[in-house]
Design brief:
alpha/beta; Aspartate Aminotransferase, domain 2; Aspartate Aminotransferase, domain 1; 2 domains; seven-stranded mixed beta sheet; four-stranded antiparallel beta sheet; 14 strands; 38% helix; globular; binds pyridoxal-5'-phosphate
Length: 398
């Protein structure tokens, strides 16, 4: 089984269709998005992604972190402003807030990996300037409740859909529900550009500000299909942070849009199959999706039920010994998804619900390209590791 462990981090090959465009780029040397008068690979990626996801405007950038930062800046978030974020997210999210010189306010996340709505409502005070919702590993929080509360208080919401491309909520694409959506093309996400990100919105003023700040200096904004009045208003009034995407990255990412429906379908089937197997154990629990949610996972998260800290460590060790790496977010040293490791944001408040969840929540990669037999082997390892730690299931009368 050792080969399963090695292969879950392997990427899929880049589609053949990328080769021709890359060869042309190498031959011409035309790697900068704003050199060509029109139809640069980055512009084509923006147009095709906007069409695919169902947004009016898209801006390709160097990373999802860059997209989140530009979103905050485009919304006018600045020094000292409060930004609500979930306490369970990747360190890139509080980092983007700090980069915008704002103060992250952490909201509790429950054992279902979703935002605790009572804590969200309590922390949505009048001094909150913006909200970032992280759909962590595709786990979608209650977007209807979040949007209703945010709209009632007039606070803009940014969706961090870095790792959730393909997930839908009430039939709508994740990332299109709030004012702004941000996606990642880092290699572990559904579309692999090595690095890269995308910001989407229907608001011409927000996209105009973000386009300029992403590094559309002088009149390069004229190469974006956005109302030009929106740009003229901001000419020379915004800093240029230079977070542009290169044509080479766009050429790698663009042909993968066509692969997304297959990757989503296969990833969901693998996830739901493994979830069914794990949920049969009294020791393991994969929380169900919320009713409006259709997931697009390339990994699986599950809770260890009734485990102590030492039993949790023993479970991780047993799984690794049997060939499948599993991390427990709060147990592995320096994990970037454990809020107490975000020392750069200053004092973190006590967040007992999120802490308790992170100490028992397991995370394992489950890429769409795995076969059913490989999925069965992975599930068998987790079931066997749980039994090794907690004893045979029958002995407990279940
Ligand atoms: C990967 C990830 C990010 C950061 O994306 P980059 O493109 O690497 O900056 C942000 N949020 C979540 C939830 C992620 O999974």
């Amino acid at each position: 089984m050792a080969q399963i462990n090695a292969s879950v981090y392997d990427a899929e090959p880049i589609p053949e269709a990328a080769r021709e465009e890359i060869a042309a780029l190498l031959a011409s040397g035309d790697l900068f998005r704003y050199t060509a008068a029109s139809d640069a690979p980055v512009s084509r990626l923006e147009a095709e992604f906007a069409q695919f996801i169902g947004a009016r405007y898209a801006l390709a950038v160097s990373s999802c972190s860059g997209a989140l930062f530009l979103s905050l800046k485009a919304l006018g978030v600045g020094p000292g402003d409060k930004v609500l974020i979930p306490a369970f997210t990747f360190a890139a999210v509080p980092s983007a807030v700090v980069h915008a010189e704002a103060q992250p306010v952490l909201v509790e996340v429950g054992t279902d990996f979703r935002i605790d709505m009572a804590d969200f409502e309590a922390k949505l005070t009048p001094d909150v300037k913006a909200i970032i919702i992280s759909h962590m590993r595709g786990q979608t929080s209650d977007m209807d409740a979040i949007m209703a509360l945010a709209e009632a208080r007039g606070v803009p919401v940014i969706e961090d859909a870095a790792h959730s491309l393909g997930t839908t909520w009430g039939g709508r694409n994740i990332g299109t529900i709030a004012r702004i959506g941000c996606f990642s093309f880092q290699s572990y996400k559904l579309m692999n550009g090595g690095e890269g990100g995308m910001m989407i919105t229907d608001d011409p003023d927000i996209i105009a500000r973000a386009v300029i700040m992403s590094g559309a200096y002088e009149h390069n904004w004229k190469k974006h299909p956005v109302l030009h009045e929106s740009f003229a208003r901001w000419q020379n009034r915004l800093p240029l942070y230079n977070m542009r995407m290169s044509n080479l990255s766009a050429a790698v990412v663009r042909p993968q849009i066509a692969e997304v429906p297959r990757r989503v379908r296969d990833g969901r089937a693998n996830h739901d199959h493994v979830a069914g197997l794990l949920n049969a154990s009294p020791w393991l629990e994969v929380p169900p999706p919320l009713a409006p949610e259709r997931r697009a996972p390339d990994s699986i998260q599950f809770n260890l039920l009734g485990f102590s800290d030492s039993e949790t460590r023993a479970f991780m060790e047993a799984s690794a010994r049997m060939g499948v790496a599993v991390q427990v977010f709060g147990m592995s040293a320096d994990n970037a998804r454990a809020f107490w490791n975000w020392k750069f944001i200053g004092e973190t408040p006590d967040l007992p619900k999120t802490r308790a969840m992170l100490m028992r929540a397991c995370d394992a990669r489950l890429p769409a390209r795995l076969t059913r037999a490989e999925c069965d082997q992975i599930a068998a390892v987790f079931l066997a590791a749980a039994e090794e730690v907690k004893g045979p299931v029958a002995a407990y009368g279940t």
